[in-house]
Amino acid sequence: MARRRRGLPVNGVLLLDKPKGASSNHALQRVRRLLQAQKAGHTGTLDPMATGLLPVCLGEATKFSAHLLEADKVYRTRVQLGAVTDTGDAEGEVIERCAVPPLTAADVERVLERFRGEIEQTPPMYSALKHQGRKLYELAREGKSVERAVRRVTVYDARLLAFDGDAFELEVRVSKGTYVRTLAEDIGRALGSGAHITALRRLATGPFDSEGMLPIEALEALSGQDEREAALLPVDVLVAHLPKLDVDESARQRLVHGQAASVDAGGEQAGKLTRLYCGETFIGLGVVTGPQEVAPKRLLNTAAD
Q: Residue 250 belongs to what domain range?
Protein backbone atom coordinates (compact mmCIF):
# COMPACT_ATOMS: atom_id res chain seq x y z
CA MET A 1 0.00 0.00 0.00
CA ALA A 2 1.42 3.44 -1.00
CA ARG A 3 2.37 5.70 1.88
CA ARG A 4 0.11 8.71 2.06
CA ARG A 5 1.96 12.04 1.94
CA ARG A 6 1.28 14.25 4.95
CA GLY A 7 -0.10 17.74 4.42
CA LEU A 8 -2.27 19.45 1.85
CA PRO A 9 -1.80 19.53 -1.95
CA VAL A 10 -0.86 23.22 -2.00
CA ASN A 11 0.54 24.40 -5.36
CA GLY A 12 2.12 27.74 -6.21
CA VAL A 13 5.04 30.09 -5.63
CA LEU A 14 5.62 32.34 -2.62
CA LEU A 15 8.05 35.25 -3.02
CA LEU A 16 9.53 35.11 0.45
CA ASP A 17 11.57 37.93 1.98
CA LYS A 18 14.07 35.73 3.80
CA PRO A 19 15.08 37.11 7.18
CA LYS A 20 18.67 37.56 8.29
CA GLY A 21 20.10 34.71 10.36
CA ALA A 22 17.92 31.95 8.89
CA SER A 23 19.22 29.37 6.46
CA SER A 24 17.28 29.04 3.22
CA ASN A 25 16.13 25.57 4.24
CA HIS A 26 14.94 26.76 7.66
CA ALA A 27 12.93 29.55 6.03
CA LEU A 28 11.53 27.08 3.49
CA GLN A 29 10.37 24.68 6.21
CA ARG A 30 8.63 27.49 8.11
CA VAL A 31 6.70 28.39 4.96
CA ARG A 32 5.85 24.75 4.27
CA ARG A 33 4.49 24.29 7.81
CA LEU A 34 2.48 27.52 7.72
CA LEU A 35 0.80 26.43 4.48
CA GLN A 36 0.57 22.78 5.56
CA ALA A 37 2.04 21.89 2.18
CA GLN A 38 2.96 18.34 1.25
CA LYS A 39 6.02 19.39 -0.70
CA ALA A 40 8.24 22.47 -0.97
CA GLY A 41 11.55 23.58 -2.44
CA HIS A 42 13.41 26.83 -3.12
CA THR A 43 15.22 28.20 -6.16
CA GLY A 44 18.72 29.27 -5.26
CA THR A 45 20.19 29.35 -1.76
CA LEU A 46 20.77 32.54 0.20
CA ASP A 47 23.41 32.53 2.93
CA PRO A 48 22.05 32.89 6.50
CA MET A 49 23.49 36.43 6.67
CA ALA A 50 21.70 37.43 3.46
CA THR A 51 18.12 38.69 3.23
CA GLY A 52 15.66 39.21 0.43
CA LEU A 53 13.99 37.37 -2.39
CA LEU A 54 13.76 33.60 -2.01
CA PRO A 55 11.09 32.09 -4.29
CA VAL A 56 9.56 29.11 -2.47
CA CYS A 57 7.93 26.53 -4.72
CA LEU A 58 5.10 24.47 -3.27
CA GLY A 59 3.61 21.24 -4.56
CA GLU A 60 3.54 20.99 -8.33
CA ALA A 61 5.62 24.16 -8.67
CA THR A 62 8.68 22.19 -7.51
CA LYS A 63 8.64 20.40 -10.89
CA PHE A 64 9.53 23.67 -12.63
CA SER A 65 11.83 25.31 -10.07
CA ALA A 66 14.98 24.44 -12.05
CA HIS A 67 14.05 27.10 -14.60
CA LEU A 68 14.89 29.80 -12.03
CA LEU A 69 18.31 28.37 -11.25
CA GLU A 70 19.52 29.67 -14.62
CA ALA A 71 18.14 33.16 -14.00
CA ASP A 72 20.06 36.42 -13.62
CA LYS A 73 19.93 37.98 -10.16
CA VAL A 74 20.15 41.46 -8.61
CA TYR A 75 21.80 42.08 -5.24
CA ARG A 76 22.51 45.06 -3.00
CA THR A 77 25.57 44.68 -0.81
CA ARG A 78 27.79 46.65 1.57
CA VAL A 79 31.52 46.09 1.21
CA GLN A 80 33.91 46.78 4.09
CA LEU A 81 37.54 47.43 3.20
CA GLY A 82 40.52 46.70 5.43
CA ALA A 83 39.92 43.07 6.36
CA VAL A 84 39.56 39.67 4.69
CA THR A 85 37.53 36.93 6.39
CA ASP A 86 37.60 33.19 5.81
CA THR A 87 33.95 33.23 4.64
CA GLY A 88 34.09 36.48 2.66
CA ASP A 89 31.45 38.04 4.92
CA ALA A 90 31.10 39.53 8.37
CA GLU A 91 30.21 36.18 9.95
CA GLY A 92 33.66 34.72 9.30
CA GLU A 93 36.95 35.00 11.14
CA VAL A 94 39.32 37.77 10.07
CA ILE A 95 42.32 36.13 8.43
CA GLU A 96 44.05 39.26 7.11
CA ARG A 97 44.01 42.95 7.96
CA CYS A 98 45.04 45.47 5.32
CA ALA A 99 45.64 49.20 5.23
CA VAL A 100 43.00 51.12 3.31
CA PRO A 101 44.61 53.60 0.90
CA PRO A 102 43.12 57.09 0.49
CA LEU A 103 40.22 56.54 -1.89
CA THR A 104 37.47 58.56 -3.51
CA ALA A 105 34.18 57.49 -5.05
CA ALA A 106 35.80 58.13 -8.44
CA ASP A 107 38.51 55.58 -7.59
CA VAL A 108 35.86 52.98 -6.84
CA GLU A 109 34.00 53.80 -10.05
CA ARG A 110 37.17 53.31 -12.11
CA VAL A 111 37.78 49.89 -10.56
CA LEU A 112 34.15 48.85 -11.00
CA GLU A 113 34.52 49.40 -14.73
CA ARG A 114 37.02 46.53 -14.78
CA PHE A 115 34.46 44.19 -13.23
CA ARG A 116 31.59 44.85 -15.61
CA GLY A 117 31.03 42.28 -18.34
CA GLU A 118 32.37 38.74 -18.44
CA ILE A 119 34.89 38.04 -15.69
CA GLU A 120 36.61 35.06 -14.11
CA GLN A 121 35.87 33.95 -10.55
CA THR A 122 37.24 31.26 -8.29
CA PRO A 123 34.34 29.93 -6.19
CA PRO A 124 34.91 30.36 -2.43
CA MET A 125 35.56 27.42 -0.13
CA TYR A 126 32.51 28.50 1.87
CA SER A 127 30.04 27.50 -0.83
CA ALA A 128 27.65 24.62 -1.53
CA LEU A 129 29.67 23.37 -4.52
CA LYS A 130 30.78 19.78 -4.13
CA HIS A 131 34.20 18.10 -4.21
CA GLN A 132 34.21 14.31 -4.32
CA GLY A 133 30.67 14.21 -3.00
CA ARG A 134 31.17 16.67 -0.14
CA LYS A 135 30.10 20.32 0.02
CA LEU A 136 33.00 22.74 0.03
CA TYR A 137 31.82 24.53 3.16
CA GLU A 138 31.96 21.21 5.05
CA LEU A 139 35.61 20.83 4.07
CA ALA A 140 36.29 24.48 4.92
CA ARG A 141 34.90 24.00 8.44
CA GLU A 142 37.44 21.18 8.86
CA GLY A 143 40.21 23.58 7.89
CA LYS A 144 40.66 21.99 4.48
CA SER A 145 41.09 23.74 1.12
CA VAL A 146 40.88 22.17 -2.33
CA GLU A 147 41.50 23.40 -5.85
CA ARG A 148 38.44 25.00 -7.44
CA ALA A 149 38.05 25.48 -11.16
CA VAL A 150 37.87 29.08 -12.31
CA ARG A 151 34.49 29.88 -13.84
CA ARG A 152 33.36 32.62 -16.17
CA VAL A 153 30.44 34.71 -14.99
CA THR A 154 28.88 37.97 -16.16
CA VAL A 155 28.39 41.19 -14.21
CA TYR A 156 25.78 42.98 -16.31
CA ASP A 157 25.80 46.06 -14.12
CA ALA A 158 27.55 47.28 -10.97
CA ARG A 159 26.37 50.60 -9.56
CA LEU A 160 27.98 52.48 -6.70
CA LEU A 161 25.21 53.61 -4.34
CA ALA A 162 27.23 55.05 -1.45
CA PHE A 163 30.87 55.55 -0.42
CA ASP A 164 32.35 56.59 2.93
CA GLY A 165 36.09 56.06 2.71
CA ASP A 166 36.55 52.52 3.96
CA ALA A 167 33.19 51.04 2.93
CA PHE A 168 30.76 51.33 0.04
CA GLU A 169 27.40 50.01 -1.15
CA LEU A 170 26.84 48.38 -4.52
CA GLU A 171 23.89 47.15 -6.53
CA VAL A 172 24.88 44.43 -8.99
CA ARG A 173 23.04 42.45 -11.65
CA VAL A 174 24.83 39.18 -12.31
CA SER A 175 24.53 35.88 -14.13
CA LYS A 176 23.90 32.55 -12.43
CA GLY A 177 26.80 31.17 -10.44
CA THR A 178 28.22 34.58 -9.48
CA TYR A 179 29.43 34.87 -5.89
CA VAL A 180 28.94 38.42 -4.60
CA ARG A 181 31.32 37.73 -1.70
CA THR A 182 34.07 36.81 -4.16
CA LEU A 183 33.24 39.82 -6.33
CA ALA A 184 33.61 42.10 -3.29
CA GLU A 185 36.94 40.50 -2.34
CA ASP A 186 38.27 40.94 -5.87
CA ILE A 187 37.15 44.57 -6.04
CA GLY A 188 38.77 45.23 -2.67
CA ARG A 189 42.03 43.71 -3.87
CA ALA A 190 41.91 45.87 -6.99
CA LEU A 191 41.48 48.92 -4.75
CA GLY A 192 44.67 48.00 -2.89
CA SER A 193 43.03 46.60 0.22
CA GLY A 194 41.26 43.52 1.56
CA ALA A 195 37.46 43.39 1.67
CA HIS A 196 34.46 41.44 2.88
CA ILE A 197 30.72 42.05 2.75
CA THR A 198 28.74 43.14 5.81
CA ALA A 199 25.26 43.03 4.24
CA LEU A 200 23.69 41.28 1.26
CA ARG A 201 20.13 41.53 -0.01
CA ARG A 202 18.70 39.86 -3.10
CA LEU A 203 16.31 42.16 -4.92
CA ALA A 204 15.43 40.13 -8.01
CA THR A 205 15.79 36.73 -9.60
CA GLY A 206 14.62 36.06 -13.14
CA PRO A 207 11.12 37.53 -13.63
CA PHE A 208 10.58 38.23 -9.92
CA ASP A 209 11.54 41.37 -8.04
CA SER A 210 11.24 42.68 -4.50
CA GLU A 211 7.85 44.31 -5.06
CA GLY A 212 5.92 41.11 -4.41
CA MET A 213 7.99 39.79 -1.49
CA LEU A 214 6.26 38.70 1.71
CA PRO A 215 8.05 38.39 5.09
CA ILE A 216 7.35 35.24 7.09
CA GLU A 217 5.70 37.39 9.78
CA ALA A 218 3.21 38.71 7.22
CA LEU A 219 2.40 35.16 6.14
CA GLU A 220 1.88 34.18 9.78
CA ALA A 221 -0.44 37.16 10.28
CA LEU A 222 -2.82 36.02 7.53
CA SER A 223 -5.94 34.46 8.98
CA GLY A 224 -6.31 30.93 7.77
CA GLN A 225 -5.37 28.61 4.95
CA ASP A 226 -7.41 30.34 2.24
CA GLU A 227 -5.75 33.72 2.82
CA ARG A 228 -2.30 32.18 2.86
CA GLU A 229 -2.88 30.25 -0.36
CA ALA A 230 -4.20 33.46 -1.93
CA ALA A 231 -0.72 34.95 -1.41
CA LEU A 232 0.77 32.38 -3.81
CA LEU A 233 1.53 32.97 -7.46
CA PRO A 234 0.35 30.33 -9.96
CA VAL A 235 2.70 27.51 -10.93
CA ASP A 236 3.17 28.67 -14.52
CA VAL A 237 4.88 31.94 -13.51
CA LEU A 238 8.08 29.87 -13.33
CA VAL A 239 7.96 29.15 -17.06
CA ALA A 240 6.32 32.32 -18.37
CA HIS A 241 9.41 32.98 -20.54
CA LEU A 242 8.64 29.92 -22.69
CA PRO A 243 6.36 30.00 -25.75
CA LYS A 244 2.76 28.91 -25.27
CA LEU A 245 0.80 26.18 -27.07
CA ASP A 246 -2.94 25.58 -26.76
CA VAL A 247 -4.22 22.01 -26.99
CA ASP A 248 -7.73 20.62 -27.10
CA GLU A 249 -9.15 18.03 -24.72
CA SER A 250 -8.32 15.13 -27.02
CA ALA A 251 -4.67 16.20 -27.22
CA ARG A 252 -4.58 16.78 -23.45
CA GLN A 253 -5.75 13.23 -22.80
CA ARG A 254 -2.99 11.83 -25.01
CA LEU A 255 -0.33 14.00 -23.37
CA VAL A 256 -1.28 13.09 -19.80
CA HIS A 257 -0.99 9.43 -20.77
CA GLY A 258 2.56 10.00 -22.03
CA GLN A 259 1.73 10.08 -25.74
CA ALA A 260 2.57 12.67 -28.40
CA ALA A 261 -0.39 14.70 -29.64
CA SER A 262 -1.32 16.52 -32.81
CA VAL A 263 -1.33 20.29 -32.38
CA ASP A 264 -0.67 23.45 -34.33
CA ALA A 265 2.89 24.16 -33.16
CA GLY A 266 2.68 27.72 -34.45
CA GLY A 267 5.94 27.56 -36.37
CA GLU A 268 8.03 26.61 -33.34
CA GLN A 269 11.16 24.63 -34.19
CA ALA A 270 11.49 20.95 -33.34
CA GLY A 271 13.05 20.50 -29.91
CA LYS A 272 11.53 23.72 -28.55
CA LEU A 273 10.22 23.55 -24.99
CA THR A 274 6.73 25.03 -24.65
CA ARG A 275 4.03 25.75 -22.08
CA LEU A 276 0.89 23.70 -22.67
CA TYR A 277 -2.63 24.92 -21.91
CA CYS A 278 -6.05 23.36 -22.34
CA GLY A 279 -8.40 26.31 -22.30
CA GLU A 280 -7.18 28.50 -19.43
CA THR A 281 -5.63 25.60 -17.55
CA PHE A 282 -1.86 25.09 -17.48
CA ILE A 283 -1.10 21.38 -17.87
CA GLY A 284 2.70 21.42 -18.02
CA LEU A 285 5.56 21.50 -20.49
CA GLY A 286 5.95 19.78 -23.84
CA VAL A 287 8.58 19.47 -26.53
CA VAL A 288 7.74 20.27 -30.14
CA THR A 289 8.60 17.20 -32.23
CA GLY A 290 7.30 18.50 -35.55
CA PRO A 291 5.17 21.25 -37.11
CA GLN A 292 2.00 19.42 -36.07
CA GLU A 293 3.11 17.46 -33.01
CA VAL A 294 4.13 17.93 -29.40
CA ALA A 295 5.32 15.36 -26.84
CA PRO A 296 4.92 15.61 -23.04
CA LYS A 297 7.98 16.73 -21.10
CA ARG A 298 6.88 17.58 -17.55
CA LEU A 299 3.21 17.69 -16.68
CA LEU A 300 1.18 18.57 -13.65
CA ASN A 301 -0.14 15.69 -11.59
CA THR A 302 -3.35 14.40 -13.15
CA ALA A 303 -4.05 11.64 -10.65
CA ALA A 304 -7.49 13.13 -10.08
CA ASP A 305 -8.46 12.83 -13.76
A: 242-299
Using DSSP's 3-state secondary structure scheme, residue 74 falls into strand
Whether the Cβ atoms of residue 123 and residue 163 lie closer than 8 Å to each other: no
- 93 neighbors 149 (Cβ within 8 angstroms): no
Q: Is the pTM of this model over 0.85?
A: yes
Could you tell me if 255 and 277 lie in one domain?
yes
Q: What is the CATH number of the domain that holds 268?
A: 2.30.130.10
C-beta separation of 235 from 65 below 8 A: no
Catalytic-role residue among 47, 86, 89, 186 = 47
Q: Say if 7 falls within a structural domain.
A: no
| pLDDT tens across the length of the chain (305 residues) | 445 567 889 999 999 999 999 989 999 999 999 999 999 988 778 888 899 999 999 999 999 988 887 889 999 999 999 999 988 999 889 999 999 999 999 999 999 999 999 999 987 766 666 666 777 667 667 677 777 778 899 999 999 999 999 999 999 999 998 999 999 999 999 999 999 999 999 999 999 998 889 999 999 999 889 999 999 999 999 999 999 999 999 999 999 999 999 888 777 788 899 999 999 999 999 999 988 899 999 999 865 43
Number of domains within the chain? 3
Distance CA 56, CA 113 (A): 34
Same domain assignment for residues 223 and 255: no
Active site residue 236: no
Q: Which of 195, 226, 255 is the last residue of a domain?
A: 195
